[in-house]
Predict the structure.
Amino acid sequence: MAALAGLDCPCAGEQWGQTPSVNNKLPHDKNCNNCSVGMHRPTTRFAELSRVFRGGRSELLIAIARLSVLYEDLRLEMGEFRKLHRSVIELGEPDKDYRVSYFLRRSLATLVEFRGGLMVVRKTQEYKNAEAGLTATDARYIADADRFLQQNWTQIKDLRNEFAGHIRSAGVEFALKHFSNEVGKVTWNPNTDGWTMGLECDFAGSVLVGAISSKLEAGANVVTELQKALEIMSLGFIHA
């Protein structure tokens, strides 16, 4: 039956030596194995986790399970950061600037931790024993991820230190001393639902930007560094 999947798809005629009409507007069959629609459909598998991870008795599988947590962290953080970057940086929408900084900092920190997790996986004896048996595709993905993170490690660490490091008193002092005509906002909303606090310190975003500026080299621009961080994180997520 699998061989018959997609026979109603417009691309099926081409498979059988026929030329589909250029005006054919039928939707492609999602089960078709012959066109990009079918080839790119999601694949989901289910299994008992205790069996998959051997009850925690494998050093390699423990490391892979840890890496999966970091990957999901990075996926969620990057998804939110991309949306915020578009609304705030590209479209100039207000009142979300601190969220941009927050997800930027979290994504950078997670990418650094992910690299460490990948190194742990590759150092296990189980991985070394199994490496020769990897498919060409899997071997390439792992090698590409490791190569990207190694080649860009210095820049990733620098960006992490600039944006995702600890907020220290010296950085905050620098920010406060260099405020010019910035206008801050604080809001108290007594109607909370128990999940969010009623106090909103919108001005904290300006303090954070100032603290980040204190870590930049002379002449560096925060927006330029932000663009660097976005590019390196996007590429890092692709390779993760």
Observations:
- The two ends are 36 Å apart (CA to CA).
